[in-house]
Amino acid sequence: MSMPMKETPPSILIVDDDQNVLQVLEARLLSSGFTILKAENGSDALRQLKETKIDLMISDMKMPGMSGMEVMTKARLLNPGLPIIFLTAYGTIPDAVKAVKAGAVDYLAKPFDGRELVFKLRKVLESTPRIADRSEDDSLLNDMHIATSPKMKALYSLVRKVSHSDVNVLILGDSGVGKERIARMIHQLSSRSSQPFVVVDCGSTPASLLESELFGHVRGAFTHAVNDKRGLIETADKGTLFLDEIGNISPEMQVRLLRFLEDRKIRRIGDLKENAVNCRVLAATNSDLSNDIKNGRFREDLYYRLRVVTLFVPKLSERKEDIPVLAQYFVDDYVRKNGVRPVRLPVETIEYLCNYPWQGNVRELKNAIEAGIVLCHGNTLRPQDMHLSGLPAISMTFDDAPDSFSLEDTERHAIIRALKQAGGVQKEAANLLGISRRAIHYKIKKYEIDTAGLRNQNV
Fold first, then answer.
1. pLDDT for position 396
2. Beta strand 169-172 pairing with 197-201
3. Backbone dihedral region of 129: left (phi > 0), alpha (psi from -120 to 50 degrees) or beta?
4. Burial class (CB within 10 angstroms; exposed 0-12, middle 13-18, buried 19+) of 111
5. What is the model's pLDDT at position 105?
6. Residue 69 C-alpha from the chain's centroid
7. How far apart are CA 450 and CA 455, in angstroms?
8. Longest Cα separation, the chain
9. Reduced to 3 states, what is the DSSP secondary structure of residue 35?
10. Which residues in the chain land under pLDDT 50?
């Protein structure tokens, strides 16, 4: 398979804590025409991703300090479209399979065949367009590239399609899933992106005020109407009108809104003339509108006017693959906005977040992480910090037997057992295992074992 013609050779970043592996990969890939960059750990890899344009990354799964999965999570925030291939020992293939499900493009078991690796690289690079650099203002669109769950990928595919038309869209989903964010994406991808995006919160605006807010009024139309007022529908002219919690509007407002959707004209309260308005209408609700129609609470004709296309935003518990990326995004966003030191998300915290039910969805995750950062120690966000922020504890026992035949999992389990028996004291645990203090210190860093948590279990 021939390489596509490009101005410069594709740049490959190799991440591995084993110098021999780095040298072998470098020699093999240089001879195949690639530009090679090397990193001995995750921190160095992320630094290079910030400074250099990388087309593909090859990473080891198990490394001290920062695992391959953590590197992938953070790398995708820096370069959302970056293809990643993992190298893994035979015993940790289950971990590599999980990584592929979480967004990696492929994996190879060590020892690997050099020709097979080059073949995979070329195949991936040919099918992956080089993504242009994006500014901070494009964070909404970055969501599309960092999502790993099948449900969100399917949703974003629909968002791209509907954004190029002017059809009305009804966005459904539980509270906190990000319905307004989806609406903003549609607007930003549309030809109306330079025009206003107007949000109307139908749920919190009193029914007595909503008509004036939407349609406006003229001076003297009612008591306290001392000036003419332009309504939000007019404000959205040439742009996008987003009606949030549309299921809460009154029967009277449903009639007025239906008439606007039919002829695209409005009449301010107290006015005699009509004004034409050219705006796209997006609506959202967490209500069961079908049930509301059956019970006479929502007009069926208005429902069909609003839902030319319907988008369903899944609950966070239905797209757990996205939780690590979302969590890291919220951590980095809080750090940037508040000017605090970088906060680390260790593996045990990611596992905890992925196992939590998140009834409040993405909004609850964001709030929990921000509160946890305020309460954490040593700039490391741990599960116990999340407990302090109000989340109920989820059982995370350290003495469960490993569920795979991986030698590394078995070794990690043995170290944890020894540390538990030694009350978290590394010297005593090393004696129990028959290894040196230096060796156990290295292993604890490699497997990211929470020794403080083990000590607390013995208190």
1. 46
2. unpaired
3. beta
4. exposed
5. 76
6. 15
7. 9
8. 91
9. strand
10. 1-7, 129-137, 396-401, 459
C-alpha closest to that of 47 among 29, 65, 74, 23: 74
State how beta strands 35-39 and 265-266 pair: unpaired
Strand partners, 197: 240
Percent of the chain with pLDDT over 70: 85
The answer to whether the CB of 287 falls within 8 A of the CB of 175 is no
Nearest to 454 by CA among 412, 397, 394: 397
Question: Where in the chain do CATH 1.10.10.60 domains reside?
Answer: 407-457
Q: Which amino acid is at 57?
A: M
Collapsing DSSP states into helix, strand and coil, what is residue 192? coil
Q: What is the DSSP string of 259-298?
A: HHHHH-EE--BT-SS-EE---EEEEEESS-HHHHHHTTSS
Using only C-alpha atoms, the chain has a radius of gyration, in whole angstroms, of 27
Average pLDDT value over all residues in the chain: 83
Q: According to the model, what pLDDT value does residue 259 have?
A: 94
Q: What is the pLDDT of residue 130?
A: 45
The rounded percent of the chain whose pLDDT value lies above 90 is 35
pLDDT score for 140: 61
Which ranges in 400-457 belong to alpha helices (H)? 407-421, 426-433, 437-447, 451-457
| Cβ neighbours around 240 below 10 Å, total | 24
- Distances from the Cα of 440 to the Cα of 380, 415, 427, angstroms: 21, 8, 8
**Which residues lie across from 108 on neighbouring strands?**
87
The predicted pLDDT at position 452 comes to 67
For the chain, residues classed under CATH 3.40.50.2300 are 11-127
CATH 3.30.70.100 describes domain 317-388: no
The CATH number for 150-312, chosen from 1.20.120.640, 1.20.1250.20, 3.40.50.300, 3.100.10.10, is: 3.40.50.300
Give the pLDDT confidence score for residue 286 in this predicted structure.
Answer: 92
Contact indicator for 90, 109 with CB cutoff of 8 Å: yes
Q: Is 125:97 a contact under the CB 8 Å cutoff?
A: no
Topology classification of domain 11-127: Rossmann fold (3.40.50)
Classify 407-457 by CATH class: mainly alpha
Residues 106, 112: Cα–Cα separation, whole Å: 13
Q: Could you identify the residue written with the tokens 């129609």? A: 293
Q: Name the E strands within 17-147.
A: 35-39, 56-60, 84-88, 106-109
